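pasting for ref
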Amino acid sequence: MPNNKFYSLPDLPYGDDELAPVISKEQLSIHHQKHHAAYVKGANAILERLDQARAEKIQLDLKAETKALSFNIGGHLLHSLFWENLTPVSKGGGKPEGKILEKIKEDFGDFETFKNEFGALALGIEGSGWGTLVYHKETERLLCAPIEKHNVLLTPGAEILLVLDVFEHAYYLDYQNDRAKFIEAFWNIVNWEEANKRFENILS
């Protein structure tokens, strides 16, 4: 029996005006309803083509199809993590607490060093991509790591704890081409409770 499951666009865990003024209602709505939705639609369309080709014994360009599928699935999954990484201005920002703060201090020395390293990494990503904080189980290390586009330079086995979208579509209405200003504002809406929960789940 063929698999009829496909990807779906998640609801935002807050109102589309609750991240303002860091991210405006218009910017958030376009990002979620247009850009993220496009990755979901793109991934599902490829899955449908693959299903149809198998059913009709048609040969597709699998190299091209699977590359595009990886891009769209990566876009969907990273955006899904990103929305959960954000929280209303009234609740977000500040410093993390719990085990993730302890680990940040252990691996980076202090929170400000981590914050500066993460910000510099995100600012320096060429073109479109993501800044991430990841945990590597084998070395038991936190690292700031880039992801280009949605699926390039992502280290296999890296567990993502925190992501920041630095595609221009994430900030162009509010910050134009000033990525640095967007990155600095991001710290005011970080959901550290979610990041800490991800870390604790990995350790458990």
